[in-house]
Amino acid sequence: MALSVSSAKFSSGVEDDKTKDEFCFPKFVVMGHRGFGMNMLQSPDEKMKSIKENSILSFNVAADFPIDFVEFDVQVTRDGYPVIFHDIFMFTQEKGVITEKRVTEMPLHEFLSYGPQKDGANVKPMFRKTKDGRIFEWKVMKDDPLCTLQDAFVKVKRSVGFNIELKFDDNTVYGEEALRKTLGNILKVVNEHAENRPIIFSSFHPDAALLIRNMQISYPVFFLTNGGCEIYKDVRRNSFDEAIKICKEGGLQGIVSEVKAILRTPNAVQRVQDSKLSLISYGQLNNAVEVIYLQYLMGVEGVIVDMVMEISEAIASISVRNKEDEEEDDGRKSMIMFGEERTKVKISKDEIAFLTKFAPKLLQQ
Predict the structure, then answer these.
(1) Is 327 found in the same domain as 249?
(2) Is residue 250 scored above 80 in pLDDT?
């Protein structure tokens, strides 16, 4: 199932204008969210805190399963080093008091001093703050040191590609010079270490996505959107139509959408396809195989998942071969294999529309 470097239509060098527009996924792709899955410290589900997210250990464990990419978040420290970390602030405890500091305001050595150390010394405890304001100590079953982007290129198995999310603070206004400096530091590491590993850039920040597309043509850029599930001051972030507009005007290659937005507005998939853009999804609903298969039927090209083992193995056990049906009209006919049992399935557009009405309610989103 895993996407081989040689089979993917990704490039890693100077391209002409014609080549850069020929991006596509060669098949339905599966990506590990922050590696082997994000950490939800408040969750009673132990699977959500089994391995430290965004770590070399998490990436390599995920790479042992039939997935194509690991997705992770990159920020740049004060002294110009791209590091892999999701949260904007680092929380720790000093003399019984919780303190916080921006990741981007730390020098590299300070950032790396948090959490477990390779030599077991100088450990600064890590905490995480949830959206509702609760604070939890960052405890997982298998911990691992924090890492840089360069570490990932050097130490992560080459069997997986990287979906590099360019992480910025929603509550900060960034000028072009600041964005260009940050993206330049990231591109420097990518250009020095990527070799022929498949790379995708993605970002919720419209200007960052547009700028990194302007700064390089070697790797595809996807715009991340909630598709209207949440509302932001920047209207470009609030709908599928705005996301499509950004991609078309800026030469971006695709959209990464919250899966809820896709299920609520299934006709958006066709609008994305008509715009010659790729579409992949993220979100907690992607931890249900039924929702992922529904998206496949709808024409979504890939999914970012937390339950890497369960989802990747479930999908790998299903072999799907599309067959042209000259006698049928607009339905999608497939040969689907569940183990040795083979079943012909034809799904019409009306049936897809019917299913999407019930999927959100059925899964209690």
Answers:
(1) no
(2) yes
Does residue 176 sit in the same domain as residue 300?
A: yes
Residue 12 lies in a domain: no
The amino acid occupying position 192 is E
User: Looking up tokens 């000093």, which residue turns up?
Assistant: 94
The reply to whether 166 and 222 lie within a common domain is: yes
Q: Which domain holds residue 210?
A: 17-85+145-316
| Residue pLDDT, tens place only, 41-57 | 999 988 899 999 999 99
> Which stretches does DSSP call E strand in 184-330?
199-203, 221-225, 254-258, 278-282, 302-305, 318-322
- Burial of 108-141, coded b for 16+ CB within 10 Å and e otherwise, reads bebbbbbbeeeeeeeeeebbbeeeeeeebebebe
154 with 217, same domain?
A: yes
Strand-pairing partners, residue 97, are 94
The answer to whether the beta carbons of residues 243 and 227 sit under 8 Å apart is: yes
Residue carrying structure tokens 């078309």 = 248
Sign of the dihedral through C-alpha 348, 346, 8, 86: positive
Residue 256 · residue 287 · CB < 8 Å:
no
Amino acid at 69: F
> Would you say residue 163 lies in a domain?
yes
Could you tell me if 78 and 72 are in contact, meaning their C-beta atoms sit under 8 angstroms apart?
Answer: no
Torsion of CA 304, 305, 306, 311, to 10 degrees: -160
Q: Which tokens belong to 41?
A: 């410290």
What total of structural domains would you count in the chain?
A: 2
Residue 272: inside a domain: yes
Same domain, 300 and 210: yes
For position 328, what pLDDT does the model report? 47
What is the pTM for the complete model shown? 0.85
Of the ranges 13-17, 118-122, 180-184, the best mean pLDDT one: 180-184
pLDDT (average), residues 190-204: 97
CA-CA distance, 169 to 192, in Å (whole number)? 27
Locus of tokens 């990231």? 186
Indicate whether 220 and 301 sit together in one domain. Answer: yes
Return d(Cα 66, Cα 308) in angstroms, integer.
9
Residues 139, 120: Cα–Cα separation, whole Å? 16
Bridge partners, 82 (sequence order)? 76
173 & 308 share domain: yes
CATH code of the domain in which 260 resides? 3.20.20.190
